[in-house]
């Protein structure tokens, strides 16, 4: 994506850069300041967790191998209560098993080291595509229009949704590579109310009845996952 377009889209968004090597962190932060209004930095996972709690950035760009608390543990802490913050990981490893462990943590994107401007541009462009598009594809022939709260089936059938239904499908989509747990659903959608077992079952049943195809898969005693 063109740098100027990226800058326009990202100018009001905050980002946290987590990297223990001073020289690399300085380079990344300097580059990020071209795009972002607010850039925070930390040199390890423990410091990053404190920065996250204080500033709540929209994006986190983090290394993995760091002192005090590594990047994976840092992300695990974040994902206990937060599925919406976008996370980009820097890694020197490219084997499939290792990368799958990142996917299971609901990582939005990973960048293989060494980092350069092109790789950073690609990662930020993917963030734009995911977060600035009003329509997301739940399956090959089913889309969700987040702003209109509508399902679009085969580009012709429109199915109106209530706010919670819209938010639930968006939550499954954001967490599509992992199980969305009952605890996450309660925290994100029920918030300060108690979500009973009967309430979630009734909610899912009613939503499934609206949908032309069933893509909501129940994982016994765990939660739900988007079946694509």
UniProtKB/TrEMBL annotation:
SUPFAM superfamilies: C-terminal effector domain of the bipartite response regulators (SSF46894), CheY-like (SSF52172). The modification 4-aspartylphosphate is found at residue 63. The keyword Chloroplast does not apply. Keywords: DNA-binding, Phosphoprotein. Residues 133-228 form the OmpR/PhoB-type domain. Residues 14-128 form the Response regulatory domain. GO terms for molecular function: DNA binding. SMART domains: REC, Trans_reg_C. It comes from the Bacteria. GO terms for biological process: phosphorelay signal transduction system; regulation of DNA-templated transcription. This is Response regulator receiver protein. The lineage of its organism: Bacteria, Pseudomonadati, Campylobacterota, Epsilonproteobacteria, Campylobacterales.
């Amino acid at each position: 994506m063109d740098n100027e377009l990226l800058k326009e889209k990202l100018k009001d968004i905050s980002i946290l850069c987590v990297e223990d090597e001073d020289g690399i962190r300085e380079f990344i932060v300097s580059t990020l300041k071209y795009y972002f209004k607010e850039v925070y930095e930390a040199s390890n996972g423990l410091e990053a967790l404190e920065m996250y709690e204080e500033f709540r950035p929209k994006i986190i760009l983090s290394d993995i191998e760091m002192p005090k608390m590594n990047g994976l543990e840092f992300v695990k802490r974040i994902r206990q209560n937060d599925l919406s913050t976008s996370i980009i990981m820097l890694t020197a490893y490219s084997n499939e098993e290792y990368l799958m462990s990142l996917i299971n943590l609901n990582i939005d994107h990973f960048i293989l080291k060494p980092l350069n401007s092109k790789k950073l541009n690609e990662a930020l462009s993917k963030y734009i595509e995911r977060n600035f598009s009003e329509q997301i594809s739940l399956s090959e022939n089913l889309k969700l229009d987040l702003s209109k709260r509508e399902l679009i089936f085969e580009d012709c059938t429109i199915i109106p949704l209530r706010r919670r239904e819209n938010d639930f499908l968006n939550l499954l989509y954001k967490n599509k590579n992992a199980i969305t747990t009952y605890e996450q659903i309660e925290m994100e959608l029920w918030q300060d109310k108690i979500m009973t077992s009967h309430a979630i079952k009734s909610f899912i049943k009613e939503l499934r009845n609206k949908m032309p195809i069933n893509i909501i898969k129940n994982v016994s005693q765990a939660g739900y996952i988007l079946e694509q």
